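Attaching the record inline, Q. Sequence:
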Amino acid sequence: MLDIHLPLMLFVLILFLTLLVLLNNMLVQPLVQFMDDRDEAIAKDLEAAKGFSNNSDELNMRADEIISKAKNEAAGIRHNAINTEKTLAVSKVLAKQDELENKYNEFLVELTAEKENLKNSLLSQMPLYKESLKAKFSKL
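Structure, as predicted:
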């Protein structure tokens, strides 16, 4: 029934081994090399990402420091501006108070002078008023 042919079996064995060597050289080794290169590239990218992560943490800390310094400077500038404006407002209020005080004193001097003038004019016309009152009382 089945006949075993030794030369045919040797030929198939040699063919099989030849194909195995050729496939190993042409397909398996380049595929393994590609996977190894890919693993190395992934490892390098992970290391680079960790480095960027560390670098970004450092940059974030520096940015936070810069922002806090800027906030402090802005608060100082705002505080100085408020103090300057308060000082200016106080000086304006004091100047206006002095001006009003001077006007009030001038008004008091004028009022006193008018009072004296009115008193003198009334005293000078006092005899006329007395005569007029005497005349009116005498008619009664």
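The chain has one domain: 41-139. Residues 93 and 99 are 10 Å apart (CA to CA).

More tomorrow.
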